[in-house]
Design goal:
alpha/beta, Rossmann fold, asparaginase activity, Asparaginase, Asparaginase_C, eight-stranded mixed sheet, 2 domains, hydrolase, 10 helices, binds aspartic acid, about 325 residues
């Protein structure tokens, strides 16, 4: 039978974890081939090329490694794959998804999945998530949707998805917009039409450093004051509420924003930053006056990835435009 080509890469995470000995705790050891063996149905759906590109807990992934995974995925599409699936740890899945989404220049879907329970645990979710991710990767209606995250029967858009629970099976959600779709009886359903996408060029520079700090009550300014001398090229702050800082942090921003891009996001976990509501010192209107950009709907981690990529392709002067577009894209 003429089956479509699908490519799967495993790079680690709980989905690839097993304990080497009782009471030692699980670590990534399971190859992509072994993961695939847990979903025998796959062989009747596609010709699968599966490769193990890494064995890392997702906290230890980095942008250089993700760029090499992206280049592997690009090659798979050139070789005729109708979709690509990547299995990785869930802890930073929202960040890799965003990273890839800014750079994924194909109509074919790039689908990320993982597991909340390792293979050794009762009710392990890895095989079901992998099968669902493959179904999404193979589905015609997944085309022109960029990068998707498939977990626990739901499909999330990369720009909105966040890990919002540390241990639960239902660990991922897309605040405000909700999931892009779902799987039911093996079928892939989308709840919204496709949106136009704006892909960035590959970064020519990868040594830039973008700091991410979180505002907290009665925090000192020591780290903030040293951001420039430490050599950072950009700064993101997870601010209070609608994107606010204390007076002392606001004053420290003056100097920094004259030299490097500064983005203020919200630490709330859902909702946008404001632009024209609060006029107090440290409020968003004051911070914009001091040269900061507001993140809009982008959460602090996604804002940091955008800034890192923009600096990497020398487009940081376009930051405001990209943050605005991010808001537009997130409207259902
Ligand atoms: N708990 C994580 C996971 O779900 C570990 C990791 O992100 O690698 O995969």
């Amino acid at each position: 039978m003429d089956l479509p080509k699908l490519a799967i890469a495993s790079i680690g995470g709980t989905v690839s974890m097993r304990a080497q000995a009782a009471s030692k705790g699980v670590i990534p050891t399971v190859s992509g081939e072994t993961l695939m063996a847990a979903v025998p149905e796959l062989t009747s759906l596609a010709h699968v090329n599966v490769e193990t590109l890494g064995m890392l807990p997702s906290a230890s992934l980095n942008f250089d490694f993700l760029l090499s995974v992206l280049s592997w995925a690009n090659y798979q599409i050139e070789q005729g794959a109708v979709g690509v699936v990547i299995t990785q740890g869930t802890d930073t899945l929202e960040e890799s998804a965003t990273f890839f989404d800014h750079l994924w220049n194909h109509d074919e879907p790039l689908v990320l999945t993982g597991a909340m329970r390792s293979a050794a645990q009762a009710g392990a979710d890895g095989p079901a998530n992998l099968l669902d991710a493959c179904r999404v990767g193979l589905a015609d209606n997944s085309r022109r949707r960029g990068v998707l995250v498939v977990m626990n029967g739901q499909i999330h858009p990369a720009h909105a998805v966040r890990k919002t629970d540390s241990m639960a099976l239902q660990a991922f959600s897309s605040p405000i917009v909700g999931p892009a779709g779902l799987l039911s009886e093996g079928k892939v359903h989308y709840l919204r039409p496709t949106l136009p996408r704006n892909v960035l060029p590959l970064p020519q520079h990868t040594t830039q450093k973008v700091a991410l700090l979180q505002a907290s009550l009665s925090a000192d300014t020591l780290l903030l004051e040293n951001i420039l001398t430490l050599g950072y090229d950009g700064l993101v702050i997870a601010g209070f509420g609608a994107g606010h800082l204390s007076e002392t942090w606001a004053e420290a921003i003056d100097d920094i924003a004259k030299k490097i891009p500064v983005i203020i996001a919200t630490r709330c976990g859902s909702g946008p930053t404001a632009r024209s509501t609060y006029g107090f010192k440290g409020g968003e209107m004051d911070l914009i006056r001091r040269g900061a950009s507001m993140a809009g709907f982008a959460c602090p981690r996604k804002a940091r990835i955008l800034l890192w990529l923009l600096i990497g392709c020398r487009r940081q002067d376009d930051l405001a435009r990209y943050l605005k577009e991010d808001i537009r894209c997130q409207q259902p």
